[in-house]
Design a protein that fits this description.
Strand order of the largest sheet of chain C: 2-1-3-4-5-11
Distance between the termini of chain C: 37 Å
Number of helices of chain A: 13
Helix content of chain A: over 70%
Radius of gyration of chain A: 20 Å
Largest sheet of chain C: 6 strands, parallel
Structural class of chain C: alpha/beta
CATH class of chain A: Mainly Alpha
Shape of chain C: elongated
Number of helices of chain C: 10
Chains: A mainly alpha (about 290), B alpha/beta (about 550), C alpha/beta (about 325), D mainly alpha (about 350)
Bound molecules: adenosine-5'-triphosphate, magnesium ion
Number of strands of chain A: 0
Oligomer: heterotetramer
CATH architecture of chain A: Orthogonal Bundle
Distance between the termini of chain A: 39 Å
Shape of chain A: globular
Order of helices and strands of chain A: HHHHHHHHHHHHH
Structural class of chain A: mainly alpha
Amino acid sequence: MIYYAIEVMAPLLLAGLGGLFAELAGVLNIALEGMMLAGAFAAIVSASLTGSIAAGMLGGLIAGTVLAYLFYFVGIRMRANIFIVGLAINLLAAGSIPFLSSAMYGTKGVLRLPRVPRMPGFFVGIETGFPLLDQIFLGHSFGVYLTVPAVLLAGLVLQRTPFGLRLRSTGKNPETLRAVGLNPDRYRRAALLISGMGAGLAGSLLALRLGVYLPNVSAGRGWIALVTIYLGYKRPFGVLIAALCFALAEGVSVAAQGVLQIPGTILLGLPYILTVLAMIAYSAMRRVAPSDD
Amino acid sequence: MDLRHITKRYPENDVLAVRDVSLELRSGEIHALIGENGAGKSTLMKIAAGLLSSYDGEVRSRATDVCRLVQQHPQFIPHHQVWENLFLGIEPRTRWGLLNQEAAVRDFSALAGRYAFPVEPRMRAEGLSAAQAQLAAILGALLHNPDTLILDEPTAPCSDHETALVFEMMRSLRDDGRAVVLITHKLREVMEVSDRITVMRHGRVVGSLLTADTTPNELSSLMIGEDYQHSSSDRRFGVLRIDSGTAGRRSPVEKQDLETATAQTSPPNFQIPESRADPVFELREVSLVRRGRTLLERLNLKLYPGEILGVTGIRENGLEYIEDILSGSTEPNSGEVRIQGSRPSRYTPRAFRKLGLAYIPTDRLMRGASLSSSVEDNMILLDRKRFGRAGLLNRRASAHFSSALQQKFGITAVLGNPMHTLSGGNMQKVILSRELSQHSPVVVFSEPSWGLDFRSSERIHDEILRLSETGVGIILISSDIDEILSLCDRIVVMYKGNFARTLHGDERVRDTIGELMLGIEPEHSQSGAPGEAGVPQAPGEIESKDSAKGYGQ
Amino acid sequence: GCAPVEEEEAGRPYSIAVFVPGVVEGSPTYEMLVEGVRRAVDESENAEVRVVEGGFNQAEWSGSITSLAATESYDLIVSSNPSLPEIANEVSQSFPDQRFLVLDGYWEGNPRMRTVMFNQREQAYLNGYFAGLVTTGGMPASREARRIGLLAGQEYPMMNQVIRPAFLEGAQVVDPEIELDFRVLGNWFDAGRAADLANSMLDRGVDVILSIAGGGNQGVIATARDRDAYVLWFDSSGFHHGPGIVIGSSLVKLDQAAYERTRAAINGSLEFGVGEVLGVADGYVTFDSEDPNYTEYVPETIRAQHEQLMQRLMDEPMEFDIPGAN
Amino acid sequence: MSRSQPESRVLVTIAAIGGALALTVLLLTFVSSTPQAALRAFFLGPFSNRYYLGNMLNIFSTLAITGLGMAIAFRAGVFNLGGEGQLYVSALTATMTGLALASLPVMLGLPIALSVGILTGAVIAGLSGVFRYLWDTDELITSFLIASACIPIVDYLIVGPLKDQASNLLTTERVPEAFRLPRLLAPSQLNPTLIIALLLLVVAYIALFRTVRGYEWRLSGLNRQFARYGGIHTGVYIIVPMVVSGALHGLAGGLFVFGTHYATLVGFTAGLGWNGIAVALIAKRHPLGVIPAAAAFAYLESGAHIAMLHTDFTFELGTIIRAVIFLFVTATVLPHSDIAARMSGRVRPFSRKRQT
Ligand SMILES: Nc1ncnc2c1ncn2[C@@H]1O[C@H](COP(=O)(O)OP(=O)(O)OP(=O)(O)O)[C@@H](O)[C@H]1O
Ligand SMILES: Nc1ncnc2c1ncn2[C@@H]1O[C@H](COP(=O)(O)OP(=O)(O)OP(=O)(O)O)[C@@H](O)[C@H]1O
Ligand SMILES: [Mg+2]
Ligand SMILES: [Mg+2]
């Protein structure tokens, strides 16, 4: 179960980390969902054109970034309402992908294209001597192993670089940037583009794992990724924990369907309930703790 | 730097803030810019620093020159550390292009050390006291190594000691051949530190003089535009009577019209107590502990009707915590508060106000005002219930009320415009007008005259005196010794979360207070009122890291 | 602004609207529906068809069909879904002249409506029997546990009352010990979660899964491919989705039924007011044994045993209690 | 709400809408084989007969209530992201109450059923408010999560124990005839919800801008620290706005059942809650602004629906057009308001730590 939870976590985490940048720069990116979808579609298309997984992931990344740029242009440059722009981007992705798909391949349903390679498992034959660990951590698809460097990189960039400092300052108070002659919009743009990359990559993982593109394949994961940002208290490592928690909760609900006599449909609500409870428990603990003021 | 024929109009409220002003800032000179609230000082200097874009006229300077403005209310990102706030845009980097935190902290500490500013670079900005924030902001400007440094009311939140530090820094910059501009309302400071003085009134420059050639009286007449008589309680000229010791309460200037106006605008909401024997406000053994640190320790205090009790000290020695306790903003960990003999149901401003407390906060921007609401909405905050008829808000009555307050306090504002269009001083007047219209038996003033021009602060001082005459008990929290001295019957000095001493009558001497604030027990008198003052702990110097760490966060 | 253009009586074509309660693409049933009706229209001299997609919100279907009927420009409205008869019946109270042909649904007694139902019990039973043969060791990747899987997009009456029990019933013909692991996806598109659900089933020893989860089926295939398991398809032939992984497909010849009944309607020979049920014996429910993948990947013995079952159903059709039938 | 140059703002708005329309026309012309018919159906369809007109007004009614529910919460500085779920659950509880009380007279049974719906929404949203009040958990997230958790449960109940056994639709039984609200423009779905919605908007406007409570409400949203300092019970203005917002969604759910569908169908809310947020934001959180915002929304929705039924206009096309219009309209109409900044940065102009 943990093995699959890790697999489920990977796209959530990548999208969440991307969204974290936007969030810290002061832009609530509710378009993660649409960017993931676009990433998934582009990943299959480019994987099919090139026959390469790497190209597929690159395609996903680019697609997410393109939407992110649109987000930036309308939401930041044109000063539109961020929330509405986000909704619009989601709609745009949901509407134009079937459109493109039917123009390019004559179908807007399941898109099974030739030459899309299978996502290989990594570190398959290796043994570390701890069979349990091997079982949980080895043999995942490539994207999973991307997440660890991604978390570290995000932490490094956000906390340890001038860029990260400026980005975080943008979100807290853009005036302070203006006061020292920096343009906060630049950092918002960078943050949005990064979030587009994260979400696009996450989408490509979803699709490449299946080897096909399906309408609505993101299935609300963009929203969950958004939730992990808050659950993770806006820290990269926190997002990791939150995404893992959510994935585990999802894993519990999936596994419970086979074991418990509770109707499967009800169990689908379980991850959300577990998450709320975790959130309350955490907040309540923080309140009780003497370190709080 | 040379400003030529600058004119600035704010389109939001159609205010002509600066009118055809020309000004020359010379290097190697400290240039004071004075004028009443709303005269246009801040606006002009923002233009000089390039922070405002649409204006008429010309700003000339050498292309390589750096000009930095420290704003009137410096704003930091609360969650970020001080160095993160200040090195924004000029971050030192390591070889790998990463943030070089060590270098930043080192540079900062070196600079802070040079001017003896007690600011810790790694502290979170939210933990800075107002004075520290001001000093930090100044350091932030200095990090840019400016050729022209403009300070907009830097001394407002500072105690004498910190003010002295700032002046020292200004002088050393001047001697270094830089141009320094000081905006302030304290003429004493102007006389003390500046080389040249420019006076503004209603957006115009009405005079530019050499400090050596002028007198405070001349300056104030220029500012006000008439020959102005200081009332005897004017503390800015307190130099004249600093040691007069017994100087207590002066008879207020006659303000008959004012009182009648008050009577008209609002019927008394509270009964002012007849008896003067029972305290109207009491702290009993109040302690405040946060994050394992004792910020306030077993404080006792009694305030009697008609009394003005001064609380002073360096702000980070507990002045802001006592403000929160006195106003109900924070719940003490032990002990209790009594207002007019009753205990508030909860420790919230709401409960305190119900028992008859009015409160003028230090933090005007966040706590004292809703910047995006209209001026009128800010004025009616406390009286809102009175304008409700069957739940509906009677806008005509509230407008009438607000314009009465506006007239009474001489507030320059359009009532329907958002609060953020007001000058700093006018904002404070709005807050004061609102609180004083309550007729509360207890009023807590915290730093009431920060940022006010002297006519306005004098009005406030007169108002405080008048209030106490009518039997209101007043607590005046202020880090300004002159203000405390000229108004208060009794003064408590805080040091490290304790009441170091309560001073009565002739003990109320400037030097004694100054020493107590720094934790030095003065030799000549040991007669603190028992039970109402803690004994200061280990005497130590305020700028030591200890105290900054201990009480800052 | 959509008033139909009146043409002279003689030349007026027979006008058909196909109302798709969902979207056509991605749904084999609706693809068959549209294809069948189109073929009938193409073959006739004077008929025309418009396909209208009604989207997934069932609350809107009634309104959309009302709108179609209200234009009074369609001689026949064709649709397909178990819930459509009751909607059509209601609309037909307001527009008594409108005729309906509903496939995959059942209604008796509305003289303006003809319904065609398929015996899904037999269909699920066919799948179940095949699954039983697989899990008891008939295939290379069969596992020891006698456990088969069923993944449903959502729970609905036909699923809970017919397909699920019949699937198990069919399997237990092979071995009464066989257990069913039933899971719900919650929607018809989340292939990611479908893959996880399939994984979880495989963890519990399942080796063959009947997947009735729309786009979610792709997730099941991906898992089965990774972990060597088998997938069964429902309604249409699914072999091409995963050769060697999809090893069986039960078919409903909805396209054929749609074609034939539409043709009859155009010719004026279709009888309304009846609801028919078509099953294995009628040739409308079957198991795809023609596909080359089937012969390539499925051992001779299994194919033969399954063929026998088909024969048996031909001779003795199964009783079919239609859920919610009027 | 800048006072500056209202004329130019209007001009910009008109230009934006014009641009969006031009793009729509262009898109349709390229994609459709009968562009004229598609355009006519899309733009004029909603006004072509009373049926479509009535349906459009009915969409407007529900959207107006949910939009108001969002706007009113935003005004107090709290965020209810669970409208969709609140609407859905309330619809179910209202339906079940209606069914259970079938024997009561309408004048008694219907109000009770609606109240149950209102109460349901209020409780679900109120929970998030209470959580924030007690434990300082972000109500934006908890409301979303709680509502998301409720949706599968309702799905299950409708498909399972509460299902109408006589129907093949995934639906509960229909509420008794007597309980159904009368149709105003038969055969369209328009019903008295419209009147209730308009009344609510006006009442909300007065309550928010013309009462003392409304003053406190708005002030709490603008600067909670200030409100607290002024003696306003700010805790109340975290919980109550959430409760009211939830209650409005509950009411919308109840009316959706008794006025429009007479039953709760699986997934029948279809984004009404989400669209409520968009409506509230386009309306600049102003109760009266909700009217044009919801009207525009309803118009687009029904236009797309009609064009889809009668021409080769597709579902995706409708989605794309709506996206384009969103992008255009908000880009220029909305100033970079504080709510936008806060929605994006979640910067609250007050410390959230010390609250009563
Ligand atoms: N952002 C603004 N928008 C609109 N009007 C403004 C703004 N800032 C200042 N004003 C107006 O411009 C005038 C000059 O304000 P300014 O802040 O320059 O005064 P000041 O001399 O610095 O006063 P103070 O001593 O009170 O700080 C005032 O009438 C004020 O109301
Ligand atoms: N907007 C509101 N909606 C509902 N209840 C409120 C609202 N505001 C306050 N209350 C509650 O109503 C009660 C009365 O509050 P109100 O603000 O009227 O105080 P008040 O006028 O000073 O009266 P009292 O002295 O009785 O509290 C309080 O318990 C408070 O929690
Ligand atoms: Mg100023
Ligand atoms: Mg087996």
